[in-house]
């Protein structure tokens, strides 16, 4: 098996392909039936070729006049200043174009782990994805992450074959369906053989400026290289065994993954990739409960200085029109959408309407945030709820306010934080406005105020994430802020089971509030990287308490989970059992919450505290001559080596290492290897900190 380059799919019909010189207008994008719409994403590890592939798609479909280059900083989808300077994708960008009577709504996603939320929220609204693999690296750490995200959202995929079929099987646990084999490899890669049609597709690069518009398609014949003919024969036989007629069906069911070959960088194989997208990836499916009424999900927000918030919506049913009022189920409010746009990176075109299955950009929705469900009215939401209840066979209980809300986007917890200060107090209000806007754009960015110092604290997904936020505040909002030292977002858990009882008796005005709470806490599994704190009532108490009191109790418990008893870090791995709640008539829910919080603090202190630190999966690709230096440095960082693999002429080091030891690692690694190494980090788990390190941390936090 050859190793190749960077794109996907095979076509049933091929011909000499040329593109007219005129650039198409977005206003001319085909608006077909929903069956001919494809909502897809491009996903992969950083630097695997996602943006380059997107750039070729836009060029060959006729929507750009020239081929952009990531290194030159002139691609369509990487339009942020930080993206063009660094040569990486930071935020997902949407583009719309047509290909052979199909409308393609494409989202180019980041590959860096700090911006994994951008991939998550894109996959939440997409129907299919193209996974791009680097020819020299194969399945890398972030490839596994985005693959798991696609699996979680049940998104069918098409793969580019940049490594080996066996690598895909073993690391992704996928069933690759090979549709093409390459002609040559590396610099000698000239094209592919389509195993379905037995056609040989070749791109003859006649000059360095050859843009790959023209390729030749002709049948294989006996005059071709005997080794190639044998390889094609064997590969075709294997393909036929994998249900030749059912490639699309197994793709949609995620039982198989079409694998193709290409090199976007060398302008080869992108047109067959586009054919694969329309042939094998799914059309949008409508949400049945809203029938012909509008139902859409907000999955991204951008701020425009002139137009205000721009909200990206995926339309699941109905039609979206400007100058109409829409109802936000999550916020329980109604807003007027003033304008409707077709997204094309940072250049958008206004349109009069958008139908189900599409991705739209709206102006005027000032309260809507990521994850909100947008419908035409409260009445349509109520009607959809009734249909859903009828379908499930559950009648509506008296006083129950049901609504059919689309599942939102899971936002990962931050792992780093630091203080941020304006240059003068006169700029504090401007900084708060900037942070509010950035938080709305990026839900993985959290901002809080330290209750002791009063300082503003930024919480983010990594060093690069916080660095980019800092730079955006300077460039986009004109504020020169100062960042404090970067700190790790630790968590806490408890060591033992403990019980506590507390009574609150308080008179406010003429009203007396009396509540007594009894509860217990116990430790549970902490291996998950997500919050694993739970609470429950005893069966007897759960039946006797009103919903209002239950909600108040839950609020008290959840607020206690936000600050552990040791250092005030969020709790993880704690289960709470509410054994009894007794209130006198007239006691307010707020007092119930306050009593529960106080009782929780007692129990947590009795249970003993343990600091948990985030531990990362580290993958370093390095030349063998520098391996010992990298290993020595890793040992000083409390790292544990899991494996050392060979990849071509390099070594791949797989290890786990505490996040606290990885600050500034990119600079150190560059020095150790003379710049000839790459690495990736991904949150693996939270582990109990050893007693010595925990004592050191406690003393440092106490200022000793």
UniProtKB/TrEMBL annotation:
Entry annotated with the keyword Transcription regulation: no
Domain of life: Eukaryota
Lineage: Eukaryota, Metazoa, Chordata, Craniata, Vertebrata
TM region(s), chain numbering: none
Organism of origin: Lates calcarifer
Listed name of the protein: Elongation factor G2
GO molecular function: GTP binding; GTPase activity
Start and end residues of each Tr-type G domain: 35-285
GO cellular component, one term: mitochondrial matrix
UniProt keyword list: GTP-binding, Hydrolase, Mitochondrion, Nucleotide-binding, Protein biosynthesis
UniProt xrefs under Gene3D superfamilies: 3.30.230.10, 3.30.70.240, Elongation Factor G (Translational Gtpase), domain 3 (3.30.70.870), P-loop containing nucleotide triphosphate hydrolases (3.40.50.300), Translation factors (2.40.30.10)
InterPro entries linked to this entry: EFG_II (IPR041095), EFG_III (IPR009022), EFG_III/V (IPR035647), EFG_V (IPR035649), EFG_V-like (IPR000640), EFTu-like_2 (IPR004161), G_TR_CS (IPR031157), P-loop_NTPase (IPR027417)
Catalysed reaction, written as an equation: GTP + H2O = GDP + phosphate + H(+)
SMART domains on file: EFG_C, EFG_IV
GO biological process: mitochondrial translation; ribosome disassembly
């Amino acid at each position: 098996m050859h190793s190749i380059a960077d794109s996907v799919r095979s076509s049933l019909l091929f011909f000499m392909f040329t593109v007219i010189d005129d650039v198409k207008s977005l206003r001319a994008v085909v608006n077909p039936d929903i069956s001919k719409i494809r909502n897809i994403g491009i996903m992969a590890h950083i630097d695997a070729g996602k943006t380059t592939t997107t750039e070729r798609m836009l060029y060959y479909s006729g929507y750009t006049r020239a081929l952009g280059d990531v290194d030159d900083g002139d691609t369509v989808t990487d339009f942020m200043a930080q993206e063009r300077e660094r040569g990486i994708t930071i935020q997902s960008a949407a583009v719309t174009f047509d290909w052979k009577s199909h409308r393609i709504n494409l989202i180019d996603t980041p590959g860096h782990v700090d911006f994994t939320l951008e991939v998550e929220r894109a996959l939440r609204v997409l129907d299919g994805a193209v996974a791009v693999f680097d020819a020299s690296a194969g399945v890398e750490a972030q490839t596994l992450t985005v693959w798991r995200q696609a699996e979680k959202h049940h998104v069918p995929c098409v793969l580019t074959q940049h490594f080996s079929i066996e690598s895909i099987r073993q690391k992704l646990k996928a069933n690759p369906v090979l549709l093409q084999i390459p002609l040559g490899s590396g610099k000698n890669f000239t094209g592919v053989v389509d195993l379905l049609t037995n056609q040989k597709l070749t791109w003859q690069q006649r000059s360095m400026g050859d843009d790959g518009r023209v390729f030749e398609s002709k049948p294989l014949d006996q005059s071709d290289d005997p080794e190639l003919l044998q390889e094609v024969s064997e590969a075709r036989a294997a393909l036929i065994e994998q249900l030749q007629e059912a490639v699309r069906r197994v793709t949609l069911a995620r039982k198989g993954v079409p694998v193709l070959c290409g090199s976007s960088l060398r302008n080869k194989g992108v047109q067959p990739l586009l054919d694969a997208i329309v042939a094998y990836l799914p059309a949008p499916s409508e949400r049945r409960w809203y029938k012909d009424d509008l139902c859409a999900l907000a999955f991204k927000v951008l701020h425009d200085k002139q137009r205000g918030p721009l909200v990206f919506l995926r339309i699941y049913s109905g039609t979206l029109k400007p100058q109409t009022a829409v109802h936000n189920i999550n916020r329980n409010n109604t807003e007027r959408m003033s304008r409707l746009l077709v997204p094309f990176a940072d250049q958008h075109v206004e349109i009069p309407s958008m139908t189900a299955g599409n991705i739209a950009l709206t102006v005027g929705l000032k309260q809507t945030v990521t994850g909100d469900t947008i419908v035409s009215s409260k009445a349509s939401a109520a009607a959809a709820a009734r249909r859903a209840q009828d379908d499930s066979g559950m009648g509506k209980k008296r006083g129950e306010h049901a609504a059919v809300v689309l599942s939102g986007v899971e936002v990962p917890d931050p792992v780093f934080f630091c203080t941020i200060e304006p240059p003068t107090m006169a700029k504090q209000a401007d900084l708060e406005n900037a942070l509010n806007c950035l938080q709305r754009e990026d839900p993985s960015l959290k901002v809080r105020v330290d209750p002791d110092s009063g300082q503003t604290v930024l919480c983010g997904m990594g060093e690069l994430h916080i660095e980019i936020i800092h730079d955006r505040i300077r460039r986009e909002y004109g504020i020169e802020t100062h960042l404090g030292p970067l700190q790790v977002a630790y968590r806490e858990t408890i060591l033992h089971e403990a019980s506590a009882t507390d009574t609150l008796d308080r008179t406010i005005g003429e009203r007396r509030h009396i509540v007594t709470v009894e509860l217990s806490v116990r430790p549970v599994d902490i291996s998950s990287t997500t919050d694993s704190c739970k609470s429950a009532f005893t069966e007897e108490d759960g039946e006797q308490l009103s919903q209002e009191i239950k909600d108040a109790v839950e609020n008290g418990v959840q607020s206690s989970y936000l600050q552990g008893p040791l250092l005030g870090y969020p709790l993880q791995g704690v289960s709470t059992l509410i054994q009894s709640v007794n209130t006198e008539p007239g006691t307010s829910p707020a007092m119930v919450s306050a009593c529960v919080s106080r009782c929780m603090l007692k129990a947590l202190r009795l249970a003993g505290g343990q600091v948990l630190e985030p531990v990362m999966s580290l993958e370093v690709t390095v030349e063998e001559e520098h391996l010992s230096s990298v290993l020595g440095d890793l040992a000083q960082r409390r790292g544990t080596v899991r494996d050392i693999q060979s990849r071509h002429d390099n070594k791949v080091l797989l290890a786990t290492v505490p996040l606290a030891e990885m600050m500034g690692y990119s600079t150190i690694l560059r020095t150790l290897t003379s710049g000839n190494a790459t690495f990736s980090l991904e949150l693996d788990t939270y582990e109990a900190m050893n007693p010595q390190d925990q004592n050191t941390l406690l003393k440092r936090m106490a200022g000793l």
